[in-house]
């Protein structure tokens, strides 16, 4: 049989010719060791120019395209292309991987840059968003990520002088980034007028915010901050590809072939033009430069590297050359010398010296070259061209001999015959032409049998035959030189081939994997001397096979380095080297051949062990002919499939789907859940059949192990169990912490979870998810206990290394393609692991976010074996592994030292001791060894005879296979494959502690009718009898010949019937388990068996043959058969008289039969319920209707059991739930209590004879579980109550309009801002201007044009407003936010928010300062209470990710005093964040979103790291707050929602609040939270009650704490007193704010005095003796605790848009009028409210009279009033219109009042006629509603802006429209507030397609105009503003709409009013 192992000889990469210059830049640097680092193909190269040697980094698996050097100049980062590209950081000295960064980019990594201290790395992806990532590369951790740009980014660089600033540039942009928290935010560079907007190719940062960048046109652009400040023109004459900054200054390299050096100020030093030098050529283009002291490196587009000494700059040295762009296919080796020649699509032929590693000659051709061949004497060289011609050159001087063109298609293959007389030329046309060399290459033959293009040809040794391969996969033979086709097999057999380069033929079939097509191996070359074959393929691999290799799928060694296709491979003439060429990477690799025998020594010395030398290829899926057969146990285990049809994680979705499907069903009242509950007491079972190392002693000496979905902590003294029930599916692995107090368990799941939990408290400390699919099969803690290694069951058996406390994955890697059995952490080095598995042992080294691995080297010491166990020894380097053969393999580092025979059969378990080892094998023997496996000290055989009397059970067989061993407490703990756990005393006696069924499903379960005993029968072919009293043990066991599915005791308990899987059944004696009688009447399995009542006269036997047979027990005869079921029978029950049988079938039929004959009866539903049944195990019928869940198409209820008193029905289903229902269960989807523990399906449930205990068995989990029933009164532990039972609508605690509104608020972002007015028409900047007929003559002799605007030249100096600064805000967002008002600095300041501004107000001075970094409305605010973080505030805002990725809502954490942003958290809460809260230590922050899932996220805010996140609830969550003493416990409340959360590592676990049976208490909408000592939680409900919880159980109610909803609660940390605020009318006893004691038993109410009723409070906060209160109506007051006096601090407009605004003509006051029905007069200098008028209707506009005596206000209902300013008495009012008054003005001469309305009119009133206010005229012809109006200075005209974007001018008071432009031009206006007109066309922005400019105002000096728009911006322009899109300054602060804006009388202030934010902003003019 041919040897199919991999060859023993090896290749080692020795040299790479080439450098990647195309499509890359900045990829060539000096290292600290003065070596040159660059890359080519997939290899990082470190080239030592002095010694002319190369080192290689081979850690990539595809083309490298980017490179950066660490500031230490030793570490290098490289990035690659590919589907899942990664970044390697490696050491250029040892060429070893230091860190791997993965899972962030797709497509490729285009740029890399280290920051100045080398801690962080920035990378840019090639994906569509050009994602920018920032890494903490040592930890392999992603710190931040952001969308880079819509187009390619070419360079990125850190500012070396500012730690968090980064600059990137690319196609038509440059961006300046800041990193804060986890938010990376960019500002675009402003090109302005200084330079053209163009593509920037490279950049370098300098001091003082200066950035230098190289542009596409050869200019250098210099930036200061964001602005382009100057350009250095013509620095290069074409694009500048590379810029390098160093101490000396800067070097630039460009497409013009020049290098220029600049000093640190960017003044030119020198210029070197490489095109002009001796090696230069036209078109030389520089892609990369590097400058170090007096040396320069330059890399070119054409793969050359130049080194230039600055002193001898005219003599650059060419230190590396390679082929240029274009594919490289042609390769030939010189027949006699160490020379090779290559030819490429770059049209050059190059001759290389293999000994000197240098290019000797190069010759350029006219055409691309695809093949080359040397003549046998080496004198001539033939070249095959792409155009179908070939050329022969004389090698000596490269002169042409002939040039022949006989073909049209490319010549892909050519070879001279060995005797030198012929040349065979194969083309893509198909034929091979034969030319005679001596006759000047005359064509003398043609081989033309090929149907496709020729790929390979070979000559025979005697030059008489030729073989060809073609593209159709045919191998043909020809006679030479005629070309006659040869078919005789005999003749062919005898031919000896001179060379072997064909890929088809029996000699090389082994190079093809078993199932592939024939195209992916491009080239082979056989080495007859060493019987080895080299191949090159499409996957970039060079492989070595044995030669010949006859059988498909042979083993090989593989070598990586080339990126995509290896186009050609050849041995050198003396077989010292292999040469390989890369197609796309156009590089030539030279490999040194290392024959057998030398390999070991070389391997150790070679630093390349990582890259590719270790190839016992995993790909060879051969039939393992060369390995002993597999052990059956291992084989069986390897085939176990852990996939589930439905994973537990999918249940919520299924529930949701079925709800949506069935929502039409009218919702009947669902059955109540039962009062009683269950507690899991004991479990029989231990999972040994497919798990290992899963049994340990804890610190306290208890035993911990697992079965089903339960982890068990077993007490040996009391024989009792404590259970960890956190898992929801099978646990597959378990590992114990070094300190033995914590345990990690891993389970099955789609996203398989690992729990780390405490064995004392059974609390989950950390939940690790998101990395493993299918399941977690192996776990191990690191020696320091801080980390955890886990292995998954996904296809690649991923290995993950966790920091388990934080729940962060530190590193991950693909493990192996076959199952991994064990992972072990190295006790001496935290960052090393070893794994063993199927044919596999690997040694891992953590590198950043990944691992590098080395495979074990077996050498000649041992064979590659499947390893089942592994341990580290005392000595650092040693590793011991147990093999499937029973040998122990002893390793030093990765080298096998020796093997020791230890067991017969696999060594399944191994445990390291202080002075040795203990092993356990399939042979059932436990062996103790010394520390080097030199002596076996003692063995223990596990036998029945050795069992001690105190054993809790029986051994099933002697010498069971051992799966787990652990030592401690003077004992050896052993777990067997048969599910037994034994404890071996060191002297020999063994005690069996726990046991269960073995592998196979358990279905049969029967409870004894009189005793606490039960029987089970399983597919493991055993029948077992268990004692259920406190002894909990197996009493008897009997092996059966077949597995069984059911069993039943006779009524007297003496006989036991057992139904088997083959259709037979037997009846045995219940005590001795010996046969009494057996029958075999059916073929299919027996599914249920039951004795009739009383004497047990009949036995009914149900089978899958669809029949029930009835036997007479006494006569042992079959007496009846029940027929009529259309499917297999699932359940049967007798009635109490033993006369009637109830039968359920798989088709969900419920049938009735009469005994003994089996006659079928149809019984009406009403009658069924009257029948008294002996047992009820059926699952169908009207009394069981409610047990089927909503998604019952997926799940099946397998079993049911009814208590004797017929009140409680227990069921078991396919999801592993045991459920309790109240019987009868009528109506659909009854409520229940459900319990987890079983994993996949629960197959059977049975109540014990006295109903006190429920027994359940699991199918595949083999567990028998014993549950005790807890009656209502005595429940010590309320276990999880039914989760399914969702509360119904009718149970809500009432309705409150405020809550309902808030629930429904939909936050939209400004980005979507839509016009707040419904305008129609074309926007002004899009209107075409009509040219007036009489354009003015250029020089006008007419009188000079009058002023556009009357200038109130108060002080003759015209003042230009340069800037606005926010001075004061009147506003507080109380209407839909809560708890957003706090004291700072011990009550000296308060902080709150409105619109997009965070406001800090000093209480003594009243002055405000602002935080204005938010881009949209702030929705929440919290203050850090921890003294370490004084005045640290978190705020968050609205935002929406769906359409605008840039608008993700961010949480800002900032210092309230300095307003510095400390951190920004970019969240994925879509729509916005509506609550934030700090933890007790102040280090964590919790946030909740208004997204549909209402996600709750916990952050480590200083690092910007997300700790954990999880959907909170389907409806609004209002508040989420940490317990004041905790960093892990918090509470969330919301719409019918109350959850108690625990942060476990990186997971969030919750318990729902349990209301229990408290009177009057219902789960209702909760609005607020407070905390008390001893784990008390108070929540305020919508109906005014406060619920008091202890842990998560409701303990009492504080009834009617307020009469309306309790909106806010505040826990004072100092003294624990609680303040509540809510909706309540002030009365003697009551008030909207109350102060309570710590337990909320006594309270004191405060009536808030503000001149009007305050009945709705949204925020409270308590300081020293004061309570701060925020109301729904936007007031903020302070209440003294002693005297209850209230002091109004802020009194703003309430909810409703503010439209009306007017400033007084001579004083510092202004008036605002709002939809809240009030007008308020404010003082600008004192910043306070002077007066407030209630108007009774929403107001829309306001205006002062020019003398300041009167103010006119227009209302939404069409009415207007005129008030006297001093007394605020009404002077007159009138209502002539039905719809809103939009603007109102009084003429400059105080005579006329103009009123503009929504009814498209302006009405004029004469004020001199007194208060009658008769209309004296109105304007007609107004196209749409009126927006603004302005009078002319002489009061004769009025200009009106309308909703149709038209401005019209009318006469006053007649209202006639003026259309003559000449007249209009001459008018001087008194004011200008219009947004329309040519004078202001420039105020309209580009993006105003939906949104509008709403308001404008020109200064009294007439030089500036301010505007307010729908985006919430206030903008400042120059006036007049006649150019479109004029330049301006913009100011943030308002939320979406700015409705109105005015300058104060002296232009010192601007006042703006908000639509959505109901706030008034005052800006100072500077």
Task: Provide a compact summary of the structure.
With 1966 residues, the protein is mainly β. Mean pLDDT is 85; it is low at 599-628, 663-668, 1273-1293, 1309-1313, 1329-1345 and 1441-1446.
Strands in their spatial order, largest beta sheet? 58-59-60-61-62-63
Structural class: mainly beta
Strand segment tally: 154
CATH architectural type of the domain at 686-995: 7 Propeller
Largest sheet: 6 strands, antiparallel
User: Which fold name corresponds to the CATH topology of the domain at 686-995?
Assistant: Methylamine Dehydrogenase, Chain H
**Counting H and I runs of at least 4 residues, what is the number of helices?**
7
Our Rg estimate from Cα atoms comes to 44 Å
CA distance, first residue to last residue: 95 Å
Biased composition (Basic and acidic residues): 1323-1338
Region (Disordered): 608-628, 1323-1354
Biased composition (Acidic residues): 616-628
WD repeats: 250-265, 330-362, 404-435, 559-591, 1235-1267, 1698-1732, 1774-1815, 1931-1966
Structural summary, described in words:
This protein is an all-beta fold. Among the domains are: 328-610, 7 Propeller (Methylamine Dehydrogenase, Chain H), CATH 2.130.10.10; 686-995, YVTN repeat-like/Quinoprotein amine dehydrogenase (Methylamine Dehydrogenase, Chain H); 1179-1272; 1372-1606, YVTN repeat-like/Quinoprotein amine dehydrogenase (Methylamine Dehydrogenase, Chain H), CATH 2.130.10; 1698-1965, 7 Propeller (Methylamine Dehydrogenase, Chain H), CATH 2.130.10. It has seven helices and 154 strands. The N and C termini lie far apart (95 Å). 53% of the residues are buried.
